[in-house]
Design a protein that fits this description.
The structure holds 2 protein chains of 2 kinds. Chain A is mainly α. Chain A has 12 helices and no strands. Classes of the chains: A mainly alpha, B mainly alpha.
């Protein structure tokens, strides 16, 4: 029995060590954003909000925030509509065919973002001669965010009871009416969750944005610029905002899909 | 029942917007970008052509970088997959009701921010970073260790950190499908823990392992931010490809480099898949 105890303890220690590795660096970034020293090193010297004040005083912070939110809302709305429609269509197909379609549509998740970014850049600039800007960022992000929405909604629909939709249709509801009065209310928490995940991915995207934005900034491209030009904890304040946005929406999404979906 | 629940022509219509996005913003750009790899550049201007010169240059000039990239990304992918498997295995089989809490931590850090995570390691490993200051303060070293930051190790630690949550999820997903009844039956007939792992658990989660490995490998190969922040001289292929677009302005060469890298990567992934299939034959 002691052997078994020991192995339990070792597994627990291992899991705690891995969790520490996952959480500690992010915790440090947040901690240093409130630390009064200009150096990102321990021990902590005292609480301050100066780095946040300094961040908000930067004249290019507000346009970057606005760009990030505009792109995220557009990508979130578009990807959730397109992705949910696709998941609904695929969910009623025979299993093998459904999996093949989902597999193909998920390819952008596997391709390095660098290659998608430069391929989009050359297509926009050279083939289509579109001016780079917020619009091209939205289009670029859409193709990598869409597979996440499809996967999340499709997974929920695996346990969906289609008989209730069929009954509604048998009783005379049009396909649209059946969708809005039966399907949508049932899968709504999952769709909200998928939207939040889409927002998190969009707000966090750097590589595709970097190649498709032309001039201008989003919050992540601003981090890139700051890391190259300055090294004071203003970056930590900005990074903490990004963590709050992305982890905040992930946690809400998890909570929705776990307890309601 | 007036309508069958299987696919009708009408029911695949909602799929179209997603297909249009996929075709127009993924397939088309990649095809066009591939065509560019055969073009030539004269006086900094791209000209349509059909030449293999860019591929020849890629192999001649960047062959060494490509092998170094494959080795480093391979190390990251193997390390990430092994740690992710052990962690997912612990969550699924060893931690009982605490397993879910650890899964939640993984899911939460999944979207913790790509640049933010790399920056976090820069501030830990840097010459002015947390680790160096702590070692200095403890009197273990007299001057900052540059090797912590400007090295391959820095790249491996940071990429593994970033990729781990992405690798845990597919492996955990396939471990969830391993039935406890089968495991107990195997133990009842006298199979030891190693035999159970080797003959039942690993073969059944091969798909998850391959997804984790492939994802980690592909993302590492194409990453240019991590080497820039924590790699110092240790630049991977992604850095050289990105250079063709930011300072070199030789898009055709950049394209040939990108497609060569993807081809080599896919070759390695297929080989690993083969090996794993042979090694895990029940």
């Amino acid at each position: 029995m002691t052997g078994l105890r020991l192995s339990h303890a070792l597994w627990a220690i291992f899991a705690i060590a891995v969790s520490f590795y996952l959480v500690a660096p992010l915790a440090l970034v947040i901690l240093f954003s409130f630390n009064s020293s200009a150096l990102t090193s321990l021990p902590l010297t005292g609480l301050t909000f100066d780095w946040y004040r300094r961040l908000m005083a930067l004249d290019y912070f507000w346009p970057a925030l606005q760009n990030s939110l505009t792109v995220a809302l557009a990508v979130g709305a578009l990807s959730v509509i397109i992705g949910t429609l696709a998941a609904l269509a695929v969910a009623r197909m025979p299993g093998r065919r459904a999996e093949r379609i989902i597999g193909a549509l998920s390819l952008p998740m596997m391709m390095p973002a660098l290659i998608i970014g430069i391929a989009l850049l050359s297509t926009f600039v050279r083939l289509l001669t579109i001016r780079l800007g917020i619009m091209t960022v939205i289009l670029g992000q859409l193709v990598v965010v869409q597979p996440f929405v499809i996967a999340i909604v499709y997974a929920r629909l695996q346990t969906f009871d289609w008989a209730v939709v069929d009954s509604a249709r048998d009783l005379g509801a049009s396909p649209l009416a059946a969708f809005f009065t039966v399907t949508l209310p049932i899968v709504q928490p999952t769709i909200v969750g998928a939207t939040l995940i889409a927002l998190a991915i969009s707000l966090d995207d750097f590589v595709i944005t970097f190649f498709t934005i032309g001039s201008g900034n989003t919050l992540p491209t601003m981090v890139w610029g700051l890391v190259r030009t300055s090294l004071d904890p203003t970056i930590n304040a900005l990074a903490t905002l990004l963590i709050a946005f992305s982890i905040g929406s992930t946690v809400i999404a998890l909570w929705l899909s776990r307890y309601r979906g | 029942m007036f309508r069958s629940s299987s696919a009708t022509p009408q029911s695949s219509l909602p799929l179209m917007p997603a297909v249009v996005v996929f075709a127009g913003l993924f397939v088309l750009p990649l095809v066009y970008f591939f065509v560019i790899s055969f073009w030539s550049v004269r006086a900094r201007i791209m000209r349509p052509a059909f030449s293999l010169a860019n591929y020849a240059e890629t192999l001649n000039e960047y062959g060494g970088v490509l092998s170094y990239t494959a080795l480093t990304a391979g190390a990251v992918a193997v390390l990430t997959t092994i740690v992710a498997f052990a962690f997912a295995y612990a969550i699924r089989f060893r931690l009982g009701r605490f397993g879910n809490a650890f899964l939640l931590i993984t899911l939460t850090t999944l979207f913790g921010g790509y640049l933010v995570k790399i920056y976090a390691w820069k501030s830990i490993l840097g010459t002015e970073g947390v680790l160096n200051r702590a070692l200095l303060g403890a009197g273990l070293i007299n001057e900052p260790l540059g090797a912590l930051l400007y090295s391959t190790q820095g790249v491996v630690i940071t990429l593994t950190y970033f990729l781990l949550p992405f690798a845990v999820l597919p492996i955990y997903g396939s471990l969830r499908a391993v039935s406890d009844v089968t495991l107990e039956a195997a133990r009842d007939v006298g199979a030891g823990p190693f035999k159970v792992l080797r003959d039942i658990v690993l073969p059944q989660c091969r798909g998850g392992l391959m997804t984790a490995f492939t994802l980690s490998f592909l993302i590492s190969v194409g990453d240019y931010v991590t080497p820039r922040f924590v790699g110092g001289g240790a630049a991977l292929m992604g850095t050289f490809i990105e250079n063709q677009f930011s300072i070199g302005f030789n898009w055709p060469l950049g394209s040939a480099m990108a497609f060569t890298t993807v081809a080599v990567t896919l070759g390695i992934v297929l080989a690993v898949d083969r090996l794993l299939k042979m090694a895990l034959r029940p």
